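Worked problem 6 (solution included).
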Amino acid sequence: MRAIELEARVITAVDQIRARQPVEHDLIECKRSWPQEMKARQLAGSLNRAGGDPVLYIIGIDEKTGEIHDVSGTDILDWWSQIIPQFDHTPPELVRHLNVQVCEAGEHVVAVAVASDRAPYVVKTGSANPSLEAPMREGTDTRPK
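Solution. The predicted structure is:
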């Protein structure tokens, strides 16, 4: 995915959020803050649903209010290094990430595009007795495949 395509998708999504239109679906997820490693299952479910298309995370926006939140205190590669160990064997590829300015005041969100072309993605679940799961995202729910 080219940077200009990613930026255009994010700007369109932010405009829709501000117009009180829903934007989240199988390929787009909005997050107010950086998802914790326990959200790797949700990401895997989205990637397994995507059928080869990239999954886009827009980080730093509240989908319900349109409010922009500063997420600049987290380094993308530090965050990603916490997510990938949750995957069994082959983790997904971080295709592109960039800061996208979403208003004239300089507020920005972080766009993260993740490849889904090596599905199925399997994650480790549970802490005491970990097991493996290839989840599937359906709307706002993530279920075992």
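Discussion: The first helix runs from residue 3 to 18.
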